[in-house]
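The protein record filed here:
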Amino acid sequence: MDGYLLDRRLSESVRLDAQHLLWKLQTGYALHPDIPIKDDMKIADIGTGTGVWLLDIENDLPKTVNLDGFDISDSQFPPAHTLPANVHFGVLDALEDIPSKLAGRYDVVHLRMWCCVIKGNDPTQLIEAAYKLLKPGGYLQWEDVHGGRQVVHGEAATKLNRLILHYQTDMLKESLVSMYSTTALLGILGAFNATQGNNHGISLPAMGEIEKLVASALGEVKNGGALHWIPMVVLAKKGWGCASR
């Protein structure tokens, strides 16, 4: 077990790719527009999953920009022979010590949806890893959900939300609510499926009952139901006088 809350089946990879598209539709960008582009810059995506974020920004950057995707598992990486020459993927646990060869290497470090992976609800280790990877003057772009701002409409969605609470920025564009809710519900289903047999002693309904709830909630989405979190983006810059530790 590597601590990842969801599984890595094909359906989950498709959900991650759809989530990326929705995130871009909401914000209007993949790489934050305040980040200056340089011909020789190096960009790292930590927790890259399918690599969809890197492959998206590659289309709009000079071919001399180096793009590295890292994840604790390589099971969702695209086939190496299909990749552009400046895109590379590798296995890395960002919650362990960062190899010294990567220290101070990157102009940009990108993080997305780490809220369910961070251990002990303490992001210090992840922030320190990103800090170590960045060059002085480099940028951290962190995209996540605002856990305290959740939208829930519908009977089935409410029941599912109670189960989630038991187990454990800007408002969304109205035109994207149903699509965000659909991907969120699929993620919830994947999370419950991945925890079968490892529910930490918490009494949960049978998987069949959870699947029925998700199906009901998906039906409610078509009639105005919703279950999603509010997306948020943090952009930070490493000081010029700060060395990588």
Observations:
- Strands lie at 42-46, 66-71, 87-91, 106-112, 134-153, 226-237.
- Residues 152-188+216-227 form one domain.
- The chain has six helices and six strands.
- The chain has a mean pLDDT of 79.
